[in-house]
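Check the record.
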Amino acid sequence: MNNLQKIGGVAALCEALIYISAFVFFGVIWDFPSDAATIQKFAFLADNQTILSIVNMIIYVIFGVLLAVLVLALHNRLKGNASAVTQLATVFGIVWVGLIIASGMIANIGLGAVVELSVTDPEQAMTVWLAIIAVVEGLGGGNEVVGGLWLTLLSIAALRSNEFPKILNYLGLFIGGAGILTVYPADVLTEIFGLGQIVWFSWLGVIMLKQPNCRGLKSD
C-alpha cells in the first residue's frame, strides 16, 4: 500500500511537470506559422515532425500511463470510504486515461500521414490535418469533461473520507468544475483546468509521498 502511494505521488508530480512542459513548449518554443501559406505550414511541420511527435508522446501517451498509475493509487486509498463515489471516479479516471493515450496516438499517426500527403496534395493534406486536430481536441486535447468529472468525483470522495486537506479537495472541486464546463468551447476554461491541475497534481504528489498511508488527514 505504502509503495503504491509513493509511486502514485511520483506520478502526480510528473503529471504536473508534463503540464508545465507543455505550456512552455506551446506557449514559448513552438512557433507554428499560422498565417503562412499551406505549403509553408507543411514545410514547417515536416521540419519539426520529430520534435512534435516526441512532445505528443510525452504530453499524451506518457501522461496517460502516469495517470493510470495515479488513478489506481487513489482508488486504493479512498475505496474504504465513500466507495460508490470512489468507484465512479475510478471509472471516469480509466476512461480519461484511454482518451488521452488515444489522442496522442492519433496525433502522431495523423502527423506522419499529412506530412507525406502534403508532398503531392497540400490542400487535401490541410483538410485531413484539420480533421485530425478536431478529433484530438474532441477526445482530450481541448475537451476536459471526462477529466473534470474524475477530479470532481475524486474530490467528493476525499471529502467524505476526510482524506487529504480540505482546501486541496475544494480546489479539486473548482478545477473539476472548470473541466466539466469545457463542454462549452472557451479557452479560459481549458486554461483554468490546465493551470489548476499543475497546482493540484503538485500538492497531491507531495502529500502522497509524505503521508503514503494516511486516513482522516486534517486540513490544518
